[in-house]
Write a sequence for this structure.
């Protein structure tokens, strides 16, 4: 494996319907495509987690998401056409499939807001970026911003450090000596 994290963000194809009108919802989700599959997989999982938190949806629990989704035969036909082009399901394709329930929730929210005569453009953006690529620790930030109606939107940045040698996520407790966390938190509150 490389001693360095090399990669870039790639935009997902989210298959949103054509928008008629001037107040169309905007959504952009990108994933990390790097030479470190363990990092890409972790960030993909975090993207799905962020979508679930932002849209207050758990696709496994919320069965109402599928009521406006395309018929299974339409999805199957589209899948067969895609599989003719590519026999291998890439990590990007897997993530695109996994985001579909969230995209439907996003579109349902837009419809609901418009039915309430809210003339606001909702938006959602998730994009990872490599901040530090050198060994021993690589850092990736996951930038998220959304506006789902109301007075203002929200944004967040989640930072993740990875040990490229052991191929593991590094958390604060992994680098602190025993009993240092309490002192660190105490000093943090003093500031």
């Amino acid at each position: 494996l490389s001693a360095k994290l090399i990669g870039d963000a790639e935009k997902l194809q989210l298959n949103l319907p054509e928008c008629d009108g001037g107040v169309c919802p905007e959504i952009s989700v990108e994933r990390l495509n790097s030479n470190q599959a363990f990092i890409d997989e972790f960030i993909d999982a975090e993207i799905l987690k962020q979508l679930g938190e932002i849209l207050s949806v758990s696709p496994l629990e919320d069965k109402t998401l599928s009521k406006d989704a395309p018929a299974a035969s339409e999805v199957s036909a589209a899948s067969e056409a895609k599989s003719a082009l590519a026999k291998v399901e890439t990590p990007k394709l897997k993530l695109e499939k996994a985001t579909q329930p969230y995209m439907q929730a996003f579109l349902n929210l837009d419809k609901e807001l418009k039915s309430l005569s809210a003339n606001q453009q909702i938006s959602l953006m998730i994009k990872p970026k490599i901040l530090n690529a050198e060994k021993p620790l690589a850092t990736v930030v996951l930038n998220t911003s959304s506006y789902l109606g109301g007075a203002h939107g929200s944004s967040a940045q989640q930072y993740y450090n990875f040990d490229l040698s052991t191929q593991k996520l590094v958390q604060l407790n992994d680098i602190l000596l025993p009993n240092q966390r309490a002192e660190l938190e105490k000093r943090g509150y003093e500031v």
User: Anything to note?
Assistant: Strands lie at 7-11, 26-34, 123-132, 137-147, 154-163, 168-170. Confidence is low (pLDDT under 50) at residues 61-73.
